[in-house]
Each structure stands twice: as structure tokens, then as C-alpha cells.
Amino acid sequence: MELLIVIVVIVILAAITVVAYNGVSANAHAAALKADLAQAVNKLGVYRVDNGAWPTSLDAAGVKMANGENIDLAVSGDTYCLAATDGTRNFHVTDSNNVPQTGSCDGVVCPAGYIQVPGNPTLGTNNFCVMKYEAKNDGSGNAVSTATGTPWTNISQTSAISTAAAACSGCHLITEPEWMTIAANVLSVPSNWSGGAVGSGFIYQGHINNNPASALAASTDDTDGLNGMTGGIGGAGANNRRTLTLTNGEAIWDFSGNAYEWTQGVITGAQPGLASDNVNGNIYSLKQWNNGSMNWNSLSASSQPSVLASTPGVSAINSWSSTNGIGQLNSNQNQSAADAFFRGGGWGGSGAAGVLTLYLSDTPSYPDVAVGFRVAQ
Fold first, then answer.
1. What are phi and psi of 80, to 5 degrees?
2. I need a labelling partner for 324 at 20 to 30 A (CA). Which of 42, 152, 169, 196 fits?
3. Using CA atoms, how far apart are residues 67 and 93, in angstroms rounded to an integer?
4. pTM score
5. Dihedrals φ, ψ of 38, to 5°?
């Protein structure tokens, strides 16, 4: 019995020692990462003084990897983010905050052609980056965000997922919470509404008038919202402005209209619908989001506009319909097979198009000629 007690005591002491050692070791590794970041920041500062700009590579500034870790630099204009990781711990610093923060640079400094989107606590999103323009094919099968060129369409959701993942480090096809985060944000900006106030008139729907009957390139002039269009519903430009502004001042092109866009959403099981749908049998039909008779069935709450009612600036969203330009739902209550999500509305979407438009009519493997995609990071 005495021997067993001694063994137990030894085991307890050993466990305490191991835990203490691991804690000390982790703190030492974290301190090393932070110290290396501090040295790198100093070298970046020296480079900027000598050259008038931040370096585009670590080698140019004389920053080397140390202690078996990786150091990465992301630069966008006059902003940079420097990250260090040893595979377990991640820290980063920026030009505006030299105190090491946990996490990588993803969503802090956006890749070229991307904009930053403020996160939405209701949807569980932090700040992230998203393509300013609909994804384009650079000719080599790479997804890029540029004003020139027409959107990359005739691609399946499955292919869009893999293509988006290859676009940059940390990149992925935009998720449903990310799409809804952008939608809630632009809906809360008064200048995106024809009446100059949130909920007044309609939110601009983009290239939806089928004139021309094809997707269009964009431009670098974010105020040139009618770029490439001739005429419009209710007169040129009535609701066809192609740019929407976020609360941080960034502009996003063709979030509604031009080409539909895949998200990562997939619905399996009975789709949302109305009792009247059953009269017509197995068909897809357009529905208003604010229809109180809607049976949501298996549609996730994060994809329903009502989830945004607690977002500042859009509390009245449950009363808005396609008359307000938010778009409609296209679904089939009798469908239970897997359908992929595509959103926004296309060049011929008319009144059904909008930032909350959702179509549930294609399988994930179907390459739809009118559907493109957008990459987030």
C-alpha cells in the first residue's frame, strides 16, 4: 500500500512537471515569434525610410526566417501585415499596430482586387476579404478580381469551390454567412437606396435589364455604376447602378445583377415554399421573402433575411419585398434532392434580382451558363 501511494505521488508530480514545462515552452516559443516580428518591423521601417514605400518582399528588407518559423508579408498600397508562425502559434502585426496580435494576416490586408468587409456578430463573421469584382478567368484557369473581362460563368459549384481555394492563401468560395454579411452591410447604407434613406425606394439591383443580354466587364470608376448598359427598367439607371457601397467606404461591383453567383450553400431535404406550390406539382417558382405563409423547411436560418433584423440599420428587413429591390426566392417545396445555392440575379433577372436573391434549382455539379462566383479570404 505504501509503495502504491509513493507511485501515485510520483505520477502526480511528474504530470505537474510536464504541464509546467509545456507552459514554459509554449511561452518561450510565443516570445520568440513576437521578438522576431519586432525585428522584422524595424527592418521594414528602415526600408521605408530609404525607399519611400514598404517592400514587396521580405528579402528586399533583409528579413530572414529564424528558429524554424515562417514569416510572411502582405502589402496593399500603404498598408502591410506581417505574420509569423511556427506551425502551432500565429501572430501578426500591421503598419498601424505593432503590438503582436494572435492570428494570421488573412482578412487584415486583402489581396489585390479584394476589399475588406466588416464582420457581423449576428452571423458569426469577423472582418474578411472578398473579390471587389465577380471572378474572372485569367486565361490560365486562375480566378482573379479585375475590372476588365467578363465574369467566369458556365462553371459548377463544385468546380467553383476548388478554383476559389486555389486563388490565394486562405481563399475559398464565398460562404452563406459571408454573403449575408455583405448583403446586410450594403442594405444599411442610405446611398445604396434610390430614395437616399434605408428602406426608401429600392436598393440598386445592377445589370438586370437584359440590355445587353450578356454579362459585362466593369470599370475602375466606382461611380460609373451604369458601365456598359444601354437603357434600363423605368429609364436608364432607374435601378441599374452596378456598384454598392459598404459602411467602410469600399465599393463592390455586381453583387446583384450581371451574373448569378455560387455560394457554398447546399440544401438537401424539402425546400422552403408555400402551400400553393403543391397545387402546381413539382415546379420551381419565385416567392417574396416577406410572405408570412412561407414554410422554411430545411433552409438554414442564416440564409433567411429575418436573421438580419437585429443588424443595425436593417431592422425593417422583414417588411421588404422585391418592390424594394432586395430580390426573391426561387424554390420548389417538393424538391428534396441536393441543390446548390446561387444568388444575386443575372443580366436578365429583372425584379427577381437583388442582394438577397436565392435560387435553389441546380445541382452542385451542374455548370450553369449564367452563374459565376466570387472568392473570399
1. -140, 160
2. 152
3. 19
4. 0.78
5. -60, -40
